[in-house]
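@here heads up, posting the sequence + SMILES for the 2-acetamido-2-deoxy-beta-D-glucopyranose run so it's all in one place. Ping me if the SMILES looks off, I pulled it from an old spreadsheet.
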Amino acid sequence: MFLLNLVTAAGLAVVAAAQVVNQTSCNGKNYTYQELAGFGLIPGDARDEFGDTIGGIGSAIALDRFQWRKLSNGSYTGVLWALPDRGWNTEGTLNFQPRVHKFDILFTPQPSATVANPSGNNLFFTYKETIKFYGPDGTPTTGLDADGTGHLSYPGYPDLPVATYQGDGFGNPGPIHKRIPIDSEGIILNADGSFWISDEYGPYVYRFNPAGLMIGAIRPPDAYIPVRNGTESFSADSPTFYASKGAGDDVIPADNPTGRDNNHGFEGLTVDGNNLYVLLQAAANQEGGLGKQTERYARLLKYDITIPSAPRYAREFVVPLPLYNDPTAKASKNPKVAAQSEIFHVQDGQFFILSRDSGAGHGQSVSTSVYRHIDVFDIADATDIKGSVYDCTNCSIASEDLGILKTGITPATYCSFIDFNVNSQLNRFGVHNGGAQDSRLLNEKWESIGIVPVDGLIGDDDEWFVFSLSDDDFITQNGYLEGGSFTYADASGFNLDNQALVFKIHLPDHSRPFPRGP
Ligand SMILES: *[C@@H]1O[C@H](CO)[C@@H](O)[C@H](O)[C@H]1NC(C)=O
Ligand SMILES: *[C@@H]1O[C@H](CO)[C@@H](O)[C@H](O)[C@H]1NC(C)=O
Ligand SMILES: *[C@@H]1O[C@H](CO)[C@@H](O)[C@H](O)[C@H]1NC(C)=O
Ligand SMILES: *[C@@H]1O[C@H](CO)[C@@H](O)[C@H](O)[C@H]1NC(C)=O
Ligand SMILES: *[C@@H]1O[C@H](CO)[C@@H](O)[C@H](O)[C@H]1NC(C)=O
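bot reply: prediction finished. Complex structure tokens:
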């Protein structure tokens, strides 16, 4: 009996040890990364119901909590909404209509997968439908860059960015059009089928009805709004594909001195009951946002959305982004800031945050990424900076040149958690970080977080699966846009897939990242 107990205890200890890749404690709450649980992909040249390439979809995801089922045979089924950003844009922006895709998913955990005996892909996607986004008057929105000056006006809305273009917006002639430009990066699926979508141009948060018609917009405080020559200027200096050949910047000055940096808008979006949180990718330009070494202090806004048609600005906090050493950069260019691409509220003011390096992965000149994490931050002790001291156009929370945080501001607590790049886990599913530039090399841009309970119910045992999809930048040699009439082959020569990873984790006791099911 004694011996048996010993054996059992030892056996359990071995199992327990094997099920911990890493642990963190954040303000007294424990998080465990148990193991990588899955890998899957949507081919980079898959097309949607309109004939357009399905790309960029890891910009954000939403897992429908109420469609998630654990089957008796050990598989899971669910519904995943995936948000592309502004379309194929590695050679300039195009008149791609922003949209969201819906997929059925089938996931079968393979806990016995090992490096020596890896599992094949175990997450499968079945495409269902696409909802395109339209302005309040039914005009399609666009992925084209915003104009350097001017805006669109709709009753009941703040000034909205405008993109003016001639012809079809793919380089063919025709009359002049004006559309609302959107570079989508965050999604919330509401119980009534409507969506909150955060964007990089404004940076704004938009609300769309289930058919994709805009029904609301949140404009952040002036400190976030890009300003050039003293007026609002929503351009991201992202020239069009057809004008960009040798044309250089499409706005002067290229960098707006205040407000969100170009293409550094609202990457992080999440909700907690009746509160919506939205986080800048990195610092605003008046507070260090123009440098990879100084863009550390990112602003987080909290809105009360009890009345969804009338969001109320409630609080504002500062999140300190992590630092990493880029082995390809000289010492004076290190450490760099790992900008963030998504957040997800876990419980009681603790959030997941996806922070990462850039320029490393499939299709990049470097294949080894050194920082690609889902970490945790906590706002319990952070200073609420909402108000006139920090929210005006020229107001800053950190120094402009060095990005040093002003005294009197306590930022959120930041805790390191899931490292995507642990090869002893990735290799269990035949994928890798670093090494050969092949289709099993992880993509550069991981930008989404979704979470569902392992028990298929409400997660009473605090065990959860975390899904993350990558943004492949629509990089394929077999690309289609504009209903299939515009074809392209990315100049890089690469074909990237829309890759997906699933992590199995243990959350702090009684975390309830979702409301109870119906
Ligand atoms: C968190 O983990 C530490 C170390 O394993 C342990 O001492 C502590 O009791 C745990 N805290 C909670 C709240 O579970
Ligand atoms: C479980 O059943 C579903 C639905 O029939 C099927 O798609 C899936 O492949 C099955 N999983 C296993 C492990 O057999
Ligand atoms: C800002 O002013 C400069 C100099 O007058 C001008 O060239 C540029 O077009 C202006 N930019 C915007 C966005 O108005
Ligand atoms: C605001 O910032 C701009 C750009 O740095 C600067 O030119 C301007 O003088 C500032 N205005 C005030 C009132 O500080
Ligand atoms: C575990 O996390 C710590 C920091 O929290 C980090 O230093 C270490 O490299 C991590 N290990 C793995 C295998 O991710």
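MO: The radius of gyration is 22 Å.
MO: One more: Residues 93 and 240 are 4 Å apart (CA to CA).
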